[in-house]
Write a structure and sequence with these properties.
418 residues, alpha+beta, 3 domains, seven-stranded antiparallel sheet, 69% helix
Length: 418
């Protein structure tokens, strides 16, 4: 079928498969950046039976590109109405066009020569997509480590802890296995035997790093004096950066292990490939959520410290801004780390209150309070004067009455005397 493009989405990326010219035209029309899918690896997934010989032949003539799912590319999935399978977790479909233009959606069951109708090929394509997504994440983490001007190996070597020392060794072994995989195109039993125990060491190191970040959050929470907060927040700046680097390296190596693992399952138990891929994805999401909860707790403590510092800037005009600056550095660093792992998070930035601004605000509040006091005093004074006037009037009236009665009495006595 001319100008036929086959689409597969696994929730992390989109595979675009078809003739090279059609794939390129389709991606250009949608304005999407992409990278090579490595479709030639699908030949091992197609099997060797005569029934799949045609699929293997078609794979050899097809081109495949991978697009990372972003809001823009996710809209493309909705636009073409891809249908999701509850069994595989994949959304698939075919689009076609004529005369060089890609057009409307075509139901996949109507495509007589679609690769997507072969379960083994579809499972293999999903495996490759997962591997490409993980390798993309690994590359982004490498860039992240470069941007923070810290080589993770330098950070790890600076630590004296045996857990981190083992992590370095595991990293060397995994990198060696990835090199062999790249050269051979598969992961055999010998290669896998070198790395199969690595996940335990990586998990131990990850747990250690998370405990260090938790300890920093608890330490910040215990400090109430601005001087102590300034010292602890300053120490946290470099410490958090280092432990985030360790976590990033853990995540990078865990993705590498998953890439190797998928190849190993395909080689040893291809019928289990779909289930294993879904299991790895769920486990990865669990790790993301665990890291997110820990780092968000630290963000909350740093923001609370900045709030406390701003509230006391009048009493501590030098140390309060230092707390805010350190808090901003830590929170910004965590936000950048979240972006590399695909964690959504806000990026609040506290501005250190200037002493003069705080003093002006305090003065205004004092004047406002004073004005209210004067008004209250004036009101009370007027009320008191009113009461005093009333009493005075009553007293004057009483005295006048008594005076008249007394004079009246005297006149009576005077008259009888005469």
């Amino acid at each position: 079928m001319e100008n036929e493009i086959q689409l597969i989405s696994d929730g992390d990326g989109l595979a675009v498969i078809g003739k090279a010219a059609d794939v390129e035209r389709f991606l250009l029309s949608e304005g999407l950046p992409s990278k090579d899918l490595g479709l030639q690896r699908l030949t091992s997934a197609a099997g060797t039976a005569a029934s799949v010989a045609q699929a293997r032949s078609e794979i050899a003539t097809e081109s495949g590109r991978w697009v990372k799912l972003t809001p823009q590319s996710a809209q493309l999935v909705r636009k073409h109405g891809l249908r999701r399978s509850s069994k595989t977790g994949l959304s698939t479909g075919v689009v076609k066009g004529s005369q060089g233009r890609i057009g409307g959606f075509v139901d996949i069951v109507k495509g007589p020569r679609t690769l997507l109708t072969n379960p083994a090929v579809l499972a293999g394509a999903a495996k490759i997509m997962a591997q490409v997504a993980m390798q993309q994440s690994m590359d982004e983490i490498t860039d992240y480590l470069a941007t923070i001007d810290e080589k993770v190996d330098d950070v790890l070597r600076a630590q004296k802890d045996a857990v981190l020392a083992r992590m370095i060794g595991v990293g060397f072994v995994i990198e060696e296995a990835m090199t062999i995989r790249e050269k051979r195109g598969r992961v055999d039993e010998v290669t896998w035997s070198k790395v199969h125990a690595a996940p335990a060491t990586i998990a131990e190191t990850q747990a250690y790093a998370l405990r260090q970040l938790d300890a920093l959050a608890e330490k910040m929470e215990r400090k109430t004096k601005i001087g102590d907060l300034a010292t602890t927040a300053g120490e946290a700046e470099s410490a958090v950066r280092e432990w985030l680097a360790v976590l990033a390296r853990c995540f990078q190596l865990q993705d590498a292990i998953a890439v190797l693992e998928l190849d190993r399952v395909l080689d040893a138990s291809p019928e289990e490939l779909d289930g294993h891929r879904l299991g790895l994805r769920a486990a990865r999401q669990d790790r993301v959520e665990l890291i997110s909860r820990c780092t968000e707790r630290l963000v909350a403590r740093m923001n609370a410290a900045a709030d406390t510092a701003n509230a006391q800037v009048l009493l501590h005009p030098a140390k309060s801004p230092a707390v805010v600056r350190s808090s901003n550095h830590v929170v910004t660093g965590i936000h950048d780390f979240h972006e590399r792992l695909g964690i959504e998070s806000g990026r609040p930035s506290w501005e250190a209150r200037r002493w003069a601004d705080a003093a002006t605000e305090a003065r205004d509040k004092a004047l406002e309070t004073g004005a209210k006091g004067v008004d209250a005093a004036r009101s009370l004074g007027n009320e008191a004067l009113g009461r005093a006037g009333s009493v005075k009037a009553k007293l004057s009236s009483g005295i006048a009455e008594r005076t008249r009665r007394r004079r009246g009495g005297e006149e009576e006595h005077g008259g009888k005397a005469e």
